[in-house]
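Residues pack. One example:


***
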Amino acid sequence: MAVVSKLAIALISPLGMSLFGGLLALLLAIAGRRRLAFWLGAVALLWLWFWSLPMASNWVRGYLEDQHPTMLVLEVPEAEAMRQFMVAPGVKAS
């Protein structure tokens, strides 16, 4: 199960997806499907190129930031685990 999870995570990333597309293109070229292999390889390279552009990362970052509005530090709820982490060892948290 862990291998399937790691494989799925690798395929979700742009680098993993383009490497998978390149490998599939190589296998298609070996099998004699050269035209399909060429187009799949080209799409894999374009996919990697697109996601390496600052425009794409800014778009994704903006989309994620819009879902979570900014908050002041004082408004963020305090977690018990962090309070105990911040206290020196041997000192009881209040």
Remarks:
- The helical segments are 2-12, 14-30, 34-52, 54-67, 80-86.
- The chain has a mean pLDDT of 85.
- The chain is about 70% helix and 0% strand.
